Amino acid sequence: MKLHALTFLSILAVSVSVSADVTLPRVLGSNMVLQRDLPVPVWGWAEAGEKVTVSFAGQSKSAKAGDDGKWMVKLDPLKASAKAASLTVQGNNKISLDNVLVGEVWICSGQSNMEWSLNRSMKAKEEIAAADHPAIRLFNVPGHTVSPVPNEKAARAGSWQVCSPKSSPGFSAVGYFFGRRLQKELGVPVGLVGSNWGGTRIEPWTTLAGFESVPELSKQAEQVKNYKADTKVGGGHPSAIYNSMVHPLAPLAMRGGIWYQGESNGGEHMSYYHKKHALVNGWRKVFQNDKLAFYWVQLANFQKENQNPEGGDGWAKIREAQTKALDIPGTGMAVITDIGAARDIHPRNKQDVGSRLAQWALHQTYGKKDLVPAGPLYKSQKIEGGSIRLSFDHVGKGLMIGKKTGLEPTAELKDGKLAHFSIAGEDKKWVWAEATIDGDTVVVKSADVPKPVAVRYGFTMNPAKANLYNKEGIPASPFRTDSW
Questions:
Q1: CA-CA distance, 193 to 283, in Å (whole number)?
Q2: What are the domain boundaries of the chain?
Q3: Where are the extended beta strands (E) located within 46-110?
Q4: Quick count: other Cβ atoms within 10 Å of Cβ 445?
Q5: Spelled out in words, what is the top-level CATH class assigned to the domain 1-299?
Q6: Predicted local confidence at residue 19, as pLDDT
Q7: Has residue 65 got a pLDDT over 90?
Q8: What's the rounded Cα separation, in Å, for the pair 481 and 484?
Q9: Would the CA dihedral through 398, 461, 306, 423 be positive or negative?
Q10: Rounded CA separation 445/424 (Å)
Q11: SS3 179
């Protein structure tokens, strides 16, 4: 009897000890990068009432686990450091996170073109061999998982890896090239968190609070509010992917996010504009950063070229919605209608995509005002008799006719002609137009339209001949000046 009692007490002691152990979310681990210059949440779980102390870089912060076992401390803003350090978490047990750096942290999300790995991209062999960057750290959210309610703990284990030829091949190519340029130009460590899933729409990545922030999306908000823990959801259900693949990362301190998605919403127009607002609003709230930078990729040129000057086919209108969403403060858009592939929805040139996203971040987030953030963006038109004069933002050092070939820098065609401009009068009949660069403006006209009222440029699924650039070599975004 005594022996049985002692055995029971021993088992009870072990179980109490195990249940009291402090645990951390998967995204907090050895080899990670902590965000500089912002408060840094460190959180996890422990026995209710247990005191937990977090120590790092001369700071020590303590908290008690609540009745639900959750605890959180916030480290004061840290200075960037490429010197490996340890972060310790002390409660009933001690956890030590080693080889921790301090720098810039970004999430890389979206569908297949963001998921597209380095080992499947242009010049993959050479790029992987050169991917020896100890100051870049990679965390990939593993698998494709969903949940009807927000999960605080990840469905599958992930871990931080030091960027190397061994760890980089399966990581997002766009994310890698974005991070590589940031690390090189900022000179601080960069942490990249990949959470992506090919073939997915924007709605599953959006939070309930995001849907609720946009009146036009009340139907989606109501649908998500009705989910219960046992509701069956799939990869197409609103909030289902966010709940499982993004929520467990929060509230990780981050500078921003990059986003490459839209093909699965490709038939939409302004509905996608509303959804983009909801996505950004929701992520800013859950990551507790209303200034979270957010940069996305406009959809590339794809499929057969349309010879009709009216255009408006395919992805023309979702690109317009992506452009309109730039009215969200702290956002930007990489235009890539010059590097797509007519027969491949996954263009292999991810280098320019990552670099153009980084161009925005370096200019707008990091204050490098000597860089122009993007190619020309349509600003306004002025009718001048039989012609229309177009003005642009982000002209940079000037406008030019350009040609992009592979990974080569855009070449200026000094004797070239602007293409893919069309013009219409009040009869709304579109014809191909003659367009010329005049200083920082473009003048468009056609003998067939004596009284023009509107212009379209590259407003089609595959504007293959569109060739307006700024002299920094970045293409102009497709646009139209009408609302027909």
A1: 14
A2: 1-299, 377-480
A3: 51-56, 59-64, 70-75, 81-90, 94-110
A4: 21
A5: alpha beta
A6: 56
A7: yes
A8: 9
A9: negative
A10: 9
A11: helix
